[in-house]
Design brief:
With 277 residues, this protein is an alpha+beta fold. Helices cover 19% and strands 39% of the residues.
Length: 277
Amino acid sequence: MMKQIQHFIGETDPYLFDLKHLTIKESTMEYTVPSDSCLVFSDFYKITQIASSLGSLALAKTMDVTEKTYFLGEKLRIRKIDNRSLDKGLKYCARSIEYSSRKGKSLVDILDEHNQLAYTFELDYFIFSEDSFYRLFKNYAITHHEPSTRTSLTVEKVEIEEIESSFFRIVIQPFSKEDCAGHFNQYPIVAAVFVVKQLLCAIEQFFEVKGIGLEQKKLNVDSLEMFLNVAVPIDTVLHSKIYYHQIAKESYVFVCPVCDDTTEYGNYLITVNYSFL
C-alpha cells in the first residue's frame, strides 16, 4: 500500500524519507526519526521537509488516490511549543483534511523523545491531477530523468551583500536538478524547504556579522511561516531583502520576501531566539 502511495505523490528518494520508519494507523500516519539524528540550526529545514512529505502521504491516504497526484504547498506554519533544546529523536504524527479534490490540509504533531509535544505544523495544499499539473508546469518538465546519487543538499553558501539598521540583502545561488532530485522528478521544482535552509544560513551569518557571538549560544527557530506564490525553477539566482526586528532580549523576527529579477516567489516569516549553552 505505502509503495503505491509513494508512487502516486511524485516524491521519491532522496527527497522522501525512508519509509521503513513509517507507521500507518486508522486515522493518522506516524514517522519516527532515529534518536541519534542530531540537527544544527540550519538543518531545521529537515524537520519541515519530513512533516511536509508525511502530510502529503497522509492526505493521499485520506483521498484514497489511485493515480498520480501532485500536492503543492500553499501556506505552511510550524511553531515550537517551548524553549527546550530539541534536535533528535523526534516523532511525527500526521492527520489530514480533504476540503475538495483540489484543496487539502495536513496537521502534524511533532513529539520529542519523551513523547511530549515539541512542535505543531500545518500545511495547506493545492492538489493537481497529472494532466492539470503538466498543463501548469510543462515549462518545468524534463524529458529524461536519471536517478540521483545525492544524499544531502549541497548548495553554495549564501552571500550577504549589506546589513543596514532594519534589513540586509542576500543572494541565494541557483539550485540544480540534482539538488531537487526526488521532488517531482520529471518537474524539478525547488522545494520551499530548501529555500528555508539558505535563509537560516543567512540568519546565522547575520548574527556573526552583527557581533552577536554564538560560541556560548544556541540558535533556535521559534516559528516559521511560508506564503508561497509561484514555484521556484532550478538554475535561478534568488534574492531577498530580509527585514529584521528584535522583539525581545534574545529573540528576533525576520521577514524574507524571496524573488529573482522579475518574480516574487513567496514570503517567509521566521522567528529565532538564542539560548545559552
